[in-house]
Amino acid sequence: xxxxxxxxxxxxxxxxxxxxxxxxxxxxxxxxxxxxxxxxxxxxxxxxxxxxxxxxxxxxxxxxxxxxxxxxxxxxxxxxxxxxxxxxxxxxxxxxxxxxxxxxxxxxxxxxxxxxxxxxxxxxxxxxxxxxxxxxxxxxxxxxxxxxxxxxxxxxxxxxxxxxxxxxxxxxxxxxxxxxxxxxxxxxxxxxxxxxxxxxxxxxxxxxxxxxxxxxxxxxxxxxxxxxxxxx
Length: 232
Fold this sequence. Notes:
Blueprint: H1 11-65, E1 67-71, E2 86-90, E3 104-108, H2 120-131, E4 140-147, E5 152-156, E6 159-162, E7 165-166, E8 181-185, E9 190-194, H3 204-207, E10 210-211, E11 215-224, E12 230-231
Antiparallel strand pairs: 1-2, 2-11, 3-4, 3-11, 4-9, 5-6, 5-8, 6-7, 9-10, 11-12
C-alpha cells in the first residue's frame, strides 16, 4: 500500500495523517525504550550473582594479603588502645620491611596450633569461610614489639632493659608497675612482645617470644571511634 503524500491531501486530512504518524512513531519509540529497559533489568539480574562473587573475592583477597580491620576486645594495650577501638593492620609491612622495636603488631594466638605453617592458599580459604560464616574468626593478639632476635631482655625494678640498657617507653602510663623478669635471650626468628598495660597483659612474659612468621601485620591507625582517629 502506497502512503499518500501530505501535500496531495486536504489540509484537515494532512494534519490528521501527520498527527497519527507522529503518534505511531512515539508509540514505537516508547515500546523500544521499554523493551531496552526490560532487557537491561534482565541483564542486571543475570549479572548480579557474578558481581557479588567478584566483590566477595576482592574482599577476601584484600583481607588475606593487604589490609584488615581488628577489634580491640581487652584492656591489654591501654592507654594506647581502648576497649572497642577498631584499628587497621597493614599485612604488607613485613613483606617489604623488618619488624622494629616499638611497633604495634597483630599476631596469631600462640596457643592456636592450627596457625603454625599456614600457607597463603590456606589463609585465603580460611578467610572465605570466615566471610560467609562457615567458621569462627581465628583469635589474634595485638601487642608492642619490645625485644628483637639476638637481644637479651630483662625487667628489673620496674624498668625494661635490653642488653643491659634501659629503653624509653613513652607509651606507658605514669607509675606503671612490672614484676622482675629474665634475663632471657630472644632466639633467631622471634620477637618479644608486651602490652602497654603491663599489669593486665598476657604477653611474651607468659607465652614466650613469638615466631616472626606468626605476625599478621603492623597496626598503623585507629579508625573507630572517630574521636580517637590517629596513627599508631
